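Schema walk-through. Below, the input block comes first and the output block second. Nothing else is stored per chain. Lengths vary across the set, and this one has 173 residues.
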Amino acid sequence: MQNNNEAELIARSLDGDARAYAELVDRYKNAVYYHCFAIVRDEDAAEDIAQETFINAYYKLKQYNSNFRLATWLFRISTNKCLTYLKRHSKEVALEAEIQTVASREPSPHHRALDSELHAAVHALRPTYRAVISLYYWQGLDYAATAAAMEAPINSVRVWLKRAKEELRKELS
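--- output ---
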């Protein structure tokens, strides 16, 4: 479900209010970008896909189902675009700089090394596993929202998470 302010912004956007849609974009642009980056691991591609996501969402806003959070719908669109991108670019995408932390202070070198190792291990996973890790752990979605974002049954999400964690344990041990 969405809050009233978000519902109002969506309604105004549907009436052609560009400022209302710009406010929605500002609200979700970072989360969508980081989600895309977690999957494709390429800053430029993640930025392009995030922009395409918001353009696509604007034109399909009438199809948005308000029973879901807008963020979930945006993650579904961006996940599909990321997976399509990876299929088109089947060769491995080089591992780019790790996601910069939003924390106010700089993490310790040890913490940064562990974080970099984790991101590299996640990058080595198949795209579906990377997407489910990003949505569930990094974006904080629950099983239902992750399933909705990936257009998959909840049980599939549970299985993918379990398998992804097993692969990560092997890789990191």
